[in-house]
Amino acid sequence: MHRHAFRATIDARLIPSLRLKSMERYFVSRTSAVALLVDARRAIAQQREDKFAHDASHYERLLGEVERLLLDVRVGRVLEFDLEFPSRVHVIVAD
């Protein structure tokens, strides 16, 4: 089983509504995992548009990492991953 850890360090000043709490665990189908990653990609893209140019590079990097993880989950190379944006979750993909 492959494990890919996607960890985004989010500054609480950038997103005050984000409260770090214990990480939730989800056992989901591949389709649901892909949907979760698509939602995360959409949230990161929105944050990138709302930030100044100096913050855009940070969100651009996060966006690239999520897109790569999305491809890996779609083809089955990754069956477990951590996601910390927009919320903290540990996802296990059940085939």
Could you characterize what this model shows?
By secondary structure, this protein is of the alpha/beta class. The protein has helices spanning 30-50, 53-75; strands at 4-5, 24-28, 80-83, 89-93. Strand 3 and strand 4 (89-93) form a beta hairpin. The radius of gyration is 13 Å and the shape is elongated.
Helical content (DSSP H or I, runs of 4+): 40-55%
Alpha carbon gyration radius: 13 Å
Low-confidence regions: 5-20
Summarize the biggest pleated sheet: 4 strands, mixed
Structural class: alpha/beta
- Shape by Cα distribution: elongated
Mean pLDDT: 78
Count up the helices: 2
Gist?
The protein is α/β, with parallel strands linked by helices and 95 residues long.
Helix and strand topology:
Layout: E1 4-5, E2 24-28, H1 30-50, H2 53-75, E3 80-83, E4 89-93
Parallel strand pairs: 1-3, 2-4
Antiparallel strand pairs: 3-4
Helix pairs in contact: 1-2
List keywords for this structure.
95 residues; alpha/beta; four-stranded mixed β-sheet; 4 strands; 46% helix; 17% strand
